[in-house]
Amino acid sequence: MTTSDRVVCDLTISADGYAAGLDQTEDRPFGDDGGNGWGDRLHAWYENASENRAELDRMTGAGAYIMGRNMFGPLRGAWDRPWNGWWGDDPPYHAPVFVLTHHAREPLEMEGGTTFHFVTDGIESALARAQAAAGNSHVAVQGGATTVNQYLAAGHVDELRLHVVPLTLGAGTRLFEGVGQLDLEQVSSRAATQVTHVTYRVRG
C-alpha cells in the first residue's frame, strides 16, 4: 500500500461512543445538549494545544479530507442558502475537502488553501477523488460518525484514531452503529487531561 492509498480517520467520541447529539442545527453544531454544555466539553481538549500537539498536528496532516454533509453544515437551514459552513474563513484543513451530500453545489474556495468539493455520487466517488487529490499523502475521513461508519463498513479505513472524552451522552450519532464486526489492533494509547487518545489499525 502506498501512502496515497492509506485512509485514516480521526474522531472525538464520548465514553459511550457518540460523536454528536440529536438535532444538529446552525446554532447547535453538536446537537441538543439539554443545556448541559457537553458539546463544548466533547471538544474542549482541542484548546489544550500544548498537551495535545501531536494529535492535533496529525489531524491536519492529510493530503485530502472527506466529511459528511452534516459536518460541513447542519441538516436544516445551511443548505437553503449560500453558506460557508462552520469552519470560518480559514478552515484548518489547507487541502481539498470532499463533502458527501445529496445537494449539488459549486466548489467553495476558502482562505489558506482549503477548497470544499461537494460530492453527490457516494462514498466510493468521494474516496477516489480524495486519493487523486492527496498526491503522495494519505486521505483522512474526518466525520461525522455516520460517514466514518460507512467507510468502516465498506472496508476502506486503515487506521482509526479515537479521542475518547470521559462523559456519556446516551443518544445521538454513534460510532460503529451498523458496522458489524471489526478486527482492531491497538497501536498506541495516551491519556491526557481531558481525553484519551487511542489508535487502532483496522485489519482484514
From TrEMBL:
TM segments? none
Any one GO molecular-function label of the UniProt entry: 5-amino-6-(5-phosphoribosylamino)uracil reductase activity
Query: Example GO biological process term?
Result: riboflavin biosynthetic process
Supply the SUPFAM superfamilies for this chain.
Dihydrofolate reductase-like
Q: Where is each Bacterial bifunctional deaminase-reductase C-terminal domain found?
A: 7-197
Q: Which PANTHER family match?
A: BIFUNCTIONAL DEAMINASE-REDUCTASE DOMAIN PROTEIN, DIHYDROFOLATE REDUCTASE FAMILY PROTEIN (AFU_ORTHOLOGUE AFUA_8G06820)
Q: What name appears for this protein in its UniProt entry?
A: Riboflavin biosynthesis protein RibD
Species annotation: Nocardioides guangzhouensis
